[in-house]
Amino acid sequence: MIARVLVPVDGSEMATYALEYALETYPDADITALHVVGVPSAMWGEASGIALSDDIEEAAKDHARAVLEDARETAATYDAELATDIELGHPVRAILERADDFDTVVIGAHSGTLSERLFVGNVAEKVVRRSPVPVTVVR
């Protein structure tokens, strides 16, 4: 029985589909939406701005607030409670580090712009390959 579900969210349409899938498929499970604020690099403008902030943790929370609010609104349409969490770091690593605490991960097939997918890599693919728990990829 699936009792705990991790759903990485990034504000993309695919992440919303993944969250909706989890809410429909596991209505009795405890679902957690995880937003990972990426590590700073030359290609991630928002993360670079966070890195320059005086309080990195607070800046990451500010960045994630809108994404997680959208996730909570989606859950509300299903009359479901949704736990939310924020991590700062590399998305794949952050998801995999948390995955062990859940029965499954439900993740969108892709996210972001084409350039982000080319440079950052396919997060869903890497999570599928390395996850210690089953992963459902939603398209």
Model description:
By secondary structure, the protein is of the alpha/beta class. The protein has one domain (4-138): Rossmann fold (3-Layer(aba) Sandwich), CATH 3.40.50.620. The chain has six helices and five strands. It has helices at residues 13-25, 45-51, 56-77, 91-99, 114-120, 123-130, and strands at 4-8, 30-37, 83-88, 104-108, 135-138. The chain has a five-stranded parallel beta sheet, sandwiched between helices. Strand 1, helix 1 (13-25) and strand 2 (30-37) form a beta-alpha-beta unit. Helix 2 (45-51) crosses helix 3 and helix 4 packs parallel to helix 6. The longest helix has 22 residues, at 56-77. Residues 1-139 form the UspA domain. InterPro entries: Rossmann-like_a/b/a_fold, Universal_stress_UspA, UspA. It holds the Pfam family Usp.
